[in-house]
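Entry:
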Amino acid sequence: MPRSLKLTMNLIAHFLNWLFEPREGFSSSRDDAYLAAAVDMNDLERRMRQLDRGPSFGPFGYNA
């Protein structure tokens, strides 16, 4: 395999790893902002339960 092709493949692999690695700081700040928007204690508890369940999937946000 030519050196330039090997270098290109290595760069692509590193880029894909960077692209798909989880970013904890981003999700935690987003979650904090979501919780801070609660209007009362009941809303805060509902939001906390929703975050604990994890992301919802499906066409309309429902688990499919």
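The chain has a mean pLDDT of 83.
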